[in-house]
Amino acid sequence: MELLALLVLASTRGLVAGGTLVVDGANADGLVDVEAIGGYDPHRAGVARGSRVTLDALHLLATEYGRDEK
User: Fold this and answer.
1) Would you state the pLDDT for residue 37?
2) Are 22 and 38 in contact (CB under 8 A)?
3) Left if phi > 0, otherwise alpha if psi is -120 to 50, otherwise beta: which for 66?
4) How many CB atoms lie within 10 A of CB 58?
5) How far apart are CA 15 and CA 54, in angstroms?
6) CA 68 – CA 36 distance, rounded (Å)
7) What residue ranges do the domains of the chain occupy?
8) 29-62, pLDDT tens digit by residue?
């Protein structure tokens, strides 16, 4: 929901905006076998990798976008 507000506000002001979503692997409580997966841990290596990939992609996009603006 926060990303939606950012995108709508940017578009109403003629700005370019974007955001990232990193899925942490949390599932619906009733659908998960907690014993099988070891419980919910939002600090797993997969979350860190996903965040790193996202930040690297944003850096590349910002670099490319910045070149187009000069």
Assistant:
1) 62
2) no
3) alpha
4) 13
5) 21
6) 49
7) 20-69
8) 666 666 766 666 667 777 788 889 988 988 988 8
In terms of Cβ atoms closer than 10 Å to its own Cβ (0-12, 13-18, 19+), residue 62 is exposed
Q: Which of 53, 59, 69 is nearest to 18 (CA)?
A: 59
For the chain, what percentages of helix, strand and coil (3-state, to nearest 5) are there?
60, 0, 40
Integer Cα distance of 22 and 57 in angstroms = 13
How many whole angstroms separate alpha carbon 20 and alpha carbon 11? Answer: 17
pTM: predicted TM-score of the whole model, two decimal places: 0.49
Task: Find the angle CA(34)-CA(38)-CA(39) to the nearest 5 degrees.
Answer: 55
List the one residue out of 9, 39, 45, 7 whose CA is nearest residue 26.
39
| Phi, then psi, of 11 in degrees rounded to 5 | -65, -35
